[in-house]
Amino acid sequence: MSIDINELLIRVRNWDKLAIAKLITLAEEGIEVPLGIQHRSHVIGITGPPGSGKSTLIYTMARKIPQEKRIAILTIDPSSPFTGGSFMGNRIRMQELTSRPNIYIRSMATRGIRGGLNYATIAAVNVLEYAGADYIFIETVGAGQSDTDIKYVADTILVLVPPLSGDEIQALKSGLMEIGDIYVVSKSDNQVSESTYRDLMAMVDMMKEIKGNSWKPIVVKVSGLYGYGVDDLLRLIDDRFRELINNGRLSESLISRRLLEMRLYAYDLLEKSLIERKDLESEVVSGKLTPQEAARRLLGMERPRLDHVAIAVKDLDGTIEKFRKLGLRVSDPVIVEEQGVKVAMVWLGNTRIELLEPLNPNSTVAKFLESRGEGIHHIALEVNDLEEFIKRVQEAGLVITGKPSKGAEGLVVFIHPKSLNGVLLELVQHRA
């Protein structure tokens, strides 16, 4: 059955929870949906060690937030390294909230990603923000010091610390304890919580001097089970959001989220490629390929790749200005004495254009301009091992013009156009 995306988007904007679920599923599958997000939701990451009371606190906060506010809750559970499945225990704890019209809850698995989040989580945040959620709570796995990717997604990070000894807080410090905006002594109904509170206050006092921004980390005592301190915590969360808006810093987390989304989507594509290329695994096991060689083949790096298309020009500075007016990124000119040219690179989505201006009238580029005028001078392929590829070229009966020499970005050599249907082909091995 086909899905009308436009109709689905309208329903999502109206907080249709079934439509939200469908759109998140599409996004999880890698289908790009034109959301046109404008950052307005308060994305709140809640992290801390296992058993610190994250689910209980979210449950209590969600019940206290006014019902005219739209609330989204994403709970992340660890994936099994054996089956890939996940036991969504956090969702079970908050089952009662699913019946409330203003609350949407979705459980997700880490899919084995180190750092606590995966591409699907970011996709879900994007959809929920488009849906107009006022609060988006993300409960992380709480796997320890590596569970820190949340800092690239959330506007505000709550780090929950249950009653612990000072030594245990010190052990957490190098990971979770450095990313928090609000540190929550959870389960503060416990008698030993006061000691944990004092230890956290001492730690935060030292960190305030390091953070260097207008928001200083705060420590609060809360009991999610009994509701103690939750109202104060919600006020602090709203204060934090206003501070971000007033200081124009709300866009920072949106930028970092998009960059993380790119990285995690790349991991997702790589994981799918690994599943499809079982043949490479077999060759590694049998010893036919080293792990490094197999990895390069997986990424397509064992084959020559288009590095750039070179264009000969008479006025390099004037050409650079034209490309920059088109909104393209162009490098500053570099002189390559060995090739007798001044060079600039124009970056495109998947390759580059090299602009060449001759340094003297006797260079090959100057002679090209004299005989043919401005235009495409050569095509360049990137190879991993220039010497090995030269052997392949010679075995094919093609003619190499001279020996490898220094180019703008590494070693280069050319295949004579008479042996390749009139095309001047450059081979490039980039510097390590």
Short description:
With 432 residues, the chain is α/β, with parallel strands linked by helices. 38% of the residues lie in helices and 22% in strands.
Describe the structure.
InterPro entries: AAA+_ATPase, Glyas_Bleomycin-R_OHBP_Dase, GTPase/Isobutyryl-CoA_mutase, GTPase_ArgK, MeMalonyl-CoA_epimerase, P-loop_NTPase, VOC_core. One of its GO terms (molecular function) is GTP binding. Pfam families: Glyoxalase_4 (PF13669), MeaB (PF03308). By secondary structure, the protein is an alpha/beta fold. The protein has 2 domains: 5-261, 3-Layer(aba) Sandwich (Rossmann fold); 303-430, 2,3-Dihydroxybiphenyl 1,2-Dioxygenase, domain 1 (Roll). It has 14 helices and 16 strands. The strands form 2 sheets. Strands 8, 9, 10, 11, 12, 13, 14, 15 and 16 form a 9-stranded mixed beta sheet that branches. Strand 5 (156-161), helix 6 and strand 6 form a beta-alpha-beta unit. The longest helix has 27 residues, at 250-276. The protein starts with a helix and ends with a strand.
Explain the layout of strands and helices.
Elements: H1 5-13, H2 17-28, E1 42-47, H3 54-64, E2 71-77, H4 89-93, E3 103-109, H5 119-130, E4 135-139, E5 156-161, H6 166-173, E6 182-185, H7 193-211, E7 218-221, H8 230-246, H9 250-276, H10 278-286, H11 291-298, E8 305-312, H12 316-325, E9 329-330, E10 334-336, E11 341-347, E12 352-358, H13 364-372, E13 375-382, H14 386-395, E14 400-406, E15 410-415, E16 425-430
Parallel strand pairs: 1-4, 1-5, 2-3, 2-4, 5-6, 6-7, 8-12, 13-16
Antiparallel strand pairs: 8-13, 9-11, 10-11, 11-12, 14-15, 15-16
Helix pairs in contact: 1-2, 2-5, 5-9, 10-11
